[in-house]
Amino acid sequence: MMKINNHIMTHKIKLYFFFALLLTYFVLVSFSQWAIAVGKSTEKKESRKENILQKEKCNPYEKAKITTRIIPSVNKTFGYEIAVNGKTLVRQPNIPALPGNDGFTTKGRAQKVADFVVKKIRNNEMPPTVTVEDLNSMGVLKKMNP
Protein backbone atom coordinates (compact mmCIF):
# COMPACT_ATOMS: atom_id res chain seq x y z
CA MET A 1 0.00 0.00 0.00
CA MET A 2 2.86 2.30 0.83
CA LYS A 3 4.48 1.52 -2.48
CA ILE A 4 1.31 2.47 -4.35
CA ASN A 5 0.95 5.76 -2.43
CA ASN A 6 4.58 6.62 -3.19
CA HIS A 7 4.01 5.78 -6.82
CA ILE A 8 0.86 7.95 -6.91
CA MET A 9 2.69 10.80 -5.15
CA THR A 10 5.58 10.53 -7.60
CA HIS A 11 3.13 10.53 -10.47
CA LYS A 12 1.33 13.62 -9.02
CA ILE A 13 4.63 15.45 -8.60
CA LYS A 14 5.56 14.65 -12.18
CA LEU A 15 2.12 15.82 -13.30
CA TYR A 16 2.40 19.10 -11.32
CA PHE A 17 5.88 19.60 -12.69
CA PHE A 18 4.61 19.02 -16.24
CA PHE A 19 1.77 21.54 -15.77
CA ALA A 20 4.19 24.07 -14.26
CA LEU A 21 6.45 23.67 -17.29
CA LEU A 22 3.46 23.96 -19.62
CA LEU A 23 2.25 27.11 -17.86
CA THR A 24 5.76 28.59 -18.00
CA TYR A 25 5.91 27.81 -21.72
CA PHE A 26 2.61 29.60 -22.39
CA VAL A 27 3.65 32.59 -20.30
CA LEU A 28 6.94 32.88 -22.18
CA VAL A 29 5.28 32.49 -25.57
CA SER A 30 2.68 35.10 -24.67
CA PHE A 31 5.36 37.47 -23.39
CA SER A 32 7.47 37.05 -26.51
CA GLN A 33 4.43 37.75 -28.73
CA TRP A 34 3.70 40.85 -26.67
CA ALA A 35 7.35 41.94 -26.93
CA ILE A 36 7.27 41.49 -30.71
CA ALA A 37 4.07 43.55 -30.92
CA VAL A 38 5.59 46.30 -28.78
CA GLY A 39 8.73 46.22 -30.93
CA LYS A 40 6.67 46.63 -34.09
CA SER A 41 4.78 49.50 -32.48
CA THR A 42 8.07 51.14 -31.53
CA GLU A 43 9.40 50.61 -35.06
CA LYS A 44 6.28 52.29 -36.46
CA LYS A 45 6.75 55.25 -34.10
CA GLU A 46 10.42 55.53 -35.08
CA SER A 47 9.45 55.30 -38.74
CA ARG A 48 6.92 58.11 -38.25
CA LYS A 49 9.59 60.20 -36.50
CA GLU A 50 11.99 59.57 -39.39
CA ASN A 51 9.32 60.66 -41.87
CA ILE A 52 8.72 63.86 -39.91
CA LEU A 53 12.46 64.55 -39.72
CA GLN A 54 12.76 63.88 -43.45
CA LYS A 55 9.98 66.39 -44.16
CA GLU A 56 11.73 68.92 -41.92
CA LYS A 57 14.96 68.34 -43.83
CA CYS A 58 13.11 69.03 -47.08
CA ASN A 59 13.82 72.69 -47.81
CA PRO A 60 10.97 74.38 -49.69
CA TYR A 61 13.19 77.42 -50.42
CA GLU A 62 16.16 75.57 -51.88
CA LYS A 63 15.00 75.91 -55.50
CA ALA A 64 12.40 78.64 -55.05
CA LYS A 65 12.52 81.88 -57.01
CA ILE A 66 13.60 84.48 -54.44
CA THR A 67 13.74 88.14 -55.43
CA THR A 68 14.71 91.29 -53.54
CA ARG A 69 13.56 94.85 -54.03
CA ILE A 70 14.86 98.00 -52.35
CA ILE A 71 12.02 100.16 -51.01
CA PRO A 72 11.96 103.78 -49.81
CA SER A 73 11.57 104.39 -46.10
CA VAL A 74 11.24 107.38 -43.77
CA ASN A 75 13.76 110.24 -43.68
CA LYS A 76 15.18 109.41 -47.11
CA THR A 77 16.36 105.96 -46.03
CA PHE A 78 15.88 102.52 -47.57
CA GLY A 79 14.48 99.14 -46.64
CA TYR A 80 13.93 95.93 -48.57
CA GLU A 81 11.32 93.40 -49.59
CA ILE A 82 11.95 89.74 -50.25
CA ALA A 83 9.52 87.70 -52.34
CA VAL A 84 9.45 83.93 -52.66
CA ASN A 85 7.81 82.63 -55.82
CA GLY A 86 6.21 86.03 -56.34
CA LYS A 87 4.75 86.36 -52.83
CA THR A 88 6.18 88.87 -50.37
CA LEU A 89 7.71 87.01 -47.45
CA VAL A 90 9.66 89.86 -45.81
CA ARG A 91 8.96 93.59 -45.84
CA GLN A 92 11.59 95.40 -43.81
CA PRO A 93 11.34 99.22 -44.09
CA ASN A 94 13.59 99.82 -41.06
CA ILE A 95 16.93 98.45 -39.91
CA PRO A 96 16.33 95.07 -38.29
CA ALA A 97 17.51 94.51 -34.68
CA LEU A 98 17.59 98.26 -33.99
CA PRO A 99 14.90 100.49 -32.48
CA GLY A 100 13.37 103.21 -34.61
CA ASN A 101 11.76 103.61 -38.00
CA ASP A 102 14.74 104.72 -40.08
CA GLY A 103 16.03 102.42 -42.78
CA PHE A 104 19.53 102.11 -44.20
CA THR A 105 21.36 105.25 -45.36
CA THR A 106 22.09 103.76 -48.80
CA LYS A 107 20.44 101.34 -51.21
CA GLY A 108 23.65 99.31 -51.22
CA ARG A 109 23.49 98.70 -47.48
CA ALA A 110 19.84 97.69 -47.69
CA GLN A 111 20.71 95.31 -50.54
CA LYS A 112 23.59 93.81 -48.57
CA VAL A 113 21.28 92.92 -45.68
CA ALA A 114 18.54 91.71 -48.06
CA ASP A 115 21.07 89.34 -49.67
CA PHE A 116 22.10 88.13 -46.20
CA VAL A 117 18.45 87.38 -45.37
CA VAL A 118 18.00 85.58 -48.71
CA LYS A 119 20.91 83.27 -47.79
CA LYS A 120 19.17 82.46 -44.51
CA ILE A 121 15.91 81.74 -46.33
CA ARG A 122 17.70 79.52 -48.87
CA ASN A 123 19.14 77.55 -45.93
CA ASN A 124 15.64 77.26 -44.42
CA GLU A 125 16.67 79.29 -41.36
CA MET A 126 13.22 80.44 -40.40
CA PRO A 127 12.52 83.02 -39.24
CA PRO A 128 15.49 84.69 -40.97
CA THR A 129 16.65 86.84 -38.07
CA VAL A 130 19.31 89.53 -38.29
CA THR A 131 21.27 90.52 -35.19
CA VAL A 132 23.24 93.67 -34.37
CA GLU A 133 26.38 91.52 -34.64
CA ASP A 134 25.34 90.50 -38.18
CA LEU A 135 24.84 94.15 -39.12
CA ASN A 136 28.23 95.12 -37.68
CA SER A 137 30.00 92.27 -39.47
CA MET A 138 28.46 93.45 -42.77
CA GLY A 139 29.55 97.01 -42.04
CA VAL A 140 26.11 98.48 -42.72
CA LEU A 141 25.83 100.47 -39.49
CA LYS A 142 28.87 102.72 -40.04
CA LYS A 143 28.08 106.34 -40.72
CA MET A 144 28.99 107.59 -44.17
CA ASN A 145 31.49 110.44 -44.47
CA PRO A 146 29.85 113.60 -45.85
Outline the structure in words:
- It contains 3 helices and 3 strands; from the N terminus they run αβββαα.
- With 146 residues, the protein is of the alpha+beta class.
- The chain folds into 2 domains: 58 residues; 73 residues, no CATH class.
- A hairpin with a 2-residue loop joins strand 2 and strand 3.
- The N and C termini lie far apart (126 Å).
- The relative contact order is 0.09.
- The mean pLDDT is 84.
User: How many strands in all?
Assistant: 3
Number of helices: 3
User: How many separate domains make up the residues?
Assistant: 2
Q: Radius of gyration over alpha carbons?
A: 36 Å
Chain-averaged pLDDT: 84
* Envelope shape: rod-shaped
Strand content of the residues, in percent? 15-25%
Task: Catalogue the unreliable spans.
Answer: none
Order of strands across the main sheet: 1-2-3
- The structure class reads alpha+beta
Biggest β-sheet strands, sense, barrel: 3 strands, antiparallel
What is the helix content?
Answer: 40-55%
Q: What string, H for helix and E for strand, traces the elements in order?
A: HEEEHH
From the N-terminal CA to the C-terminal CA, the straight-line distance is 126 Å
